[in-house]
Amino acid sequence: MYDSGKIIAGLLVFVAIIAFPFVYSMGTDIVKPEPKIDTPVIQQMAVKQCVEPKTFMRREHMQLLNQWRDEAVRDGNRVYVGFEGKKYNISLQNTCMHCHSNKKEFCDTCHNFMAVHPYCWNCHFVPKENKL
Amino acid sequence: MKMLEKALDGGKGYWSWIFLLLAIIGAGFLAYLMQFNYGLGITGLSRDVSWGFYIAQFTFLVGVAASAVMLVIPYYLHNYKKFGRIVILGEFLAISSVIMCILFIFVDLGQPMRVMNVMLHPTPNSVMFWDMIVLLGYLTLNLVIGWTTLGAERKEVKPPAWVKPLIYISVPWAVSIHTVTAFLYAGLPGRELWLTAIMAARFLSSAFAAGPALLILLALIVGRLTTFDPGKEAIQSLAKIVTYAMCINVFFFLLEVFTAFYSNIPEHMAPIKYLFVGLEGHTRLVPWMWTAAVLAVVGITLLVNPNTRNNEGILPFALIAVFVASWIDKGMGLVIGGFVPNPFGRVVEYSPTAPELLITLGVYAIGALVLTVLYKVAISVKAEVEAGGAGEAHH
Amino acid sequence: MSMDRRQFLKIAGISTILGIGAATAVNGLRNGGAEASEFEPGPEALKAKRWGFVVDMSKFKTDEDFARVIHACHSIHNVPDYGNPKDEIKWIWKDTYEHTFADQEERYMAGDRKEKPFMVFCNHCDQPPCVRVCPTKATFKRKDGIVMMDMHRCIGCRFCMAACPYGSRSFNFRDPRGKDDNGRPFIKELNPEFPTRTMGVVEKCTLCYERLAKGLKPACVEQSGGGIVFGDLEDPNSEVRQLLGKNYTIRRRPELGTQPSIYYIVGGNENA
């Protein structure tokens, strides 16, 4: 082939770049994220239930939060009728984080594992931790 | 070799220029990272003067972009063949200018990562929405038209028939980009310097003075550096256009002065007073505005007189005078003047900071890089055609 | 089929763009999350057709009166203090008559009248120019008349700041969660029940929409000792309408057609 020197060199560089992430993390164990729900508020609940069932929340909490944002901020609807008709005040800081006050052991475990950086935390924060 | 590859084929001078531009772009980018981390507080902007140097450059450059139409109309609508060699230069200048406009808006945004919101949540009542549409459309038009006509010239055939309607559309579109940008200002009820019907007309007249002025200078520079010859008559016709446009531009400004001062309405007079004599002791822009005024007068004087206008030694200086005068008046003069005095009748002044200037320089360097690459391709194609055509095979 | 490299690249490029475009479109159409019927306004929420203020400056007698009202607003909303006028953020503040109503001729007005302080906030105009110009509807007018901010959507273009004829809007030129050169945080007292903002967005008074949703009055109204009266301008029986009926009031820059909802009682008796 023409320019075989340059092409093979280029291919080697390409393989090195693509393989780097895998080589770099070789040897480290993949720890499945286990979000903890043992906060004081949750432990005191008789029936430990979120706004919606766990499977729904795990899959859809992002879309739900987006909807909450638009309904509360843009349409002024601040009450959500959730699972089994229970009503909740729409607020990430005051509703979600009221129960899930352990952001580091709950939210961050999965987010860090998936390398997801939701920008919610730029403005919203965990009241209990009282830090930004 | 393909057209774009011609930009890779240059001598030492060419590559030195490219690397200089890349170095400036790098510095500007680092300054932008500083701004991205610290916030726009790193600029001279304030609560009262919330638009400054970046938006001033954007406003001025939209005009330069629109000025390509001053070549397109005579050449395509009126068959003025003398512009044939430089129309492509005008179209490519438009591309470079629009890219810089978009970049200046980007560096001015507080949340640039959310810029797609303008498309995701279209808001037809907002002039800024339409500005995005017309700017992107104009960029696309010029890219398609410029590249296609250049490619056809290279193959020594006429351009395909579908280019003609695009060229015709680009004429009102050029006018629209600058009218819409003027509407950003002219529809705001609280800013007396801007709330005037003549804003769009002033924008167009200063654009058609500054843009072709820059184009002539670029054509002369390219003529010096390469075998390209823009044509004496083309230069002289374009210089006439600059002359008329600048006269109209200054006339329009004097109309504003008359309305403000003959009506004696304080809110109308205050911004103009701030710009030219200062307000409550604040005079930061006064020397700039008078420099612009003097340059405008000098430029017009040299341009109106055919002996000096057609003198190839004097013409460049007249054009530089016109260009700088427009840049000051339409950039800082217009944007800052709109915010002074503020809604509480106070004067808050503004100066760009060093990071702000560095970022601005970086954006200008990106524009210069785009322009250099495009001009290199255009000139190389023309040289190739004149030398006897593209005899090389594709590879 | 023979094709050259150029054709191959063109086809690959167009296929990629079409593929990404189709995937985005399908994703966008996918209905995630809950259904619309599951949202409602709160039971205690205060409702109105057009919220407004009537401000009676005669009830503001001392510096402390002003400071208390301003502090009430800025503290519960986590408004940062960047420590310099250039980057200043203020949702409510005071300025003199001369400057608040800068379009009014005051050459022969008594000095102390010119210097009289007025409480200034966003006017929550009925025809707000800021809403008209916002390219993303990040600032928008609610059905109850509040000119609202959607901090999630603001791109920080500051067109609204240029459009506002009253200077009501502030921009986060820095990170509100940052610290100044001495290590002191910009937000002096954090209210854990209200979010902060992020750098690069515009903010302003939003008529305490979060308190209205819980049936509470706006913070400034509550702390003003009767100096700021709030209510529904469209309700002829409301306190604000009664005050408007009994007193001569002015608004800022009425000739601009913005129809501000903030009225100031002026003239006569103790209001002089």
Description:
The complex is a heterotrimer of chains A (132), B (395) and C (272). By secondary structure, chain A is mainly α. Chain A has a domain of 90 residues. Chain A contains 5 helices and 2 strands. Chain A is elongated, with a radius of gyration of 22 Å. The model of chain A has no long low-confidence stretch (mean pLDDT 88). By secondary structure, chain B is mostly helical. In chain B, helix 1 runs antiparallel to helix 14, helix 2 runs antiparallel to helix 7 and helix 4 packs antiparallel against helix 14. The mean pLDDT of chain B is 94. Chain C is an alpha+beta fold. Chain C has a domain of 163 residues: Alpha-Beta Plaits. In chain C, the strands form 4 sheets. A 4-stranded mixed sheet of chain C has the order 9-2-11-10. In chain C, strands 3-4 form a two-stranded antiparallel sheet. The radius of gyration of chain C is 24 Å and the shape is elongated. The model of chain C has no long low-confidence stretch (mean pLDDT 91). Chains in contact: A-C, B-C. At the B-C interface, helix 5 and helix 6 of B face helix 3, helix 5, helix 6 and strand 7 of C. Strand 1 of chain A pairs antiparallel with strand 1 of chain C.
What is the percent of helical residues of chain B? over 70%
Radius of gyration of chain B: 21 Å
* Main structural class of chain C: alpha+beta
Given as residue ranges, the uncertain stretches of chain C (5+ residues, pLDDT < 50) are none
Order of helices and strands of chain B: HHHHHHHHHHHHHH
In the CATH hierarchy, the third-tier topology of the domain at 62-224 in chain C is known as Alpha-Beta Plaits
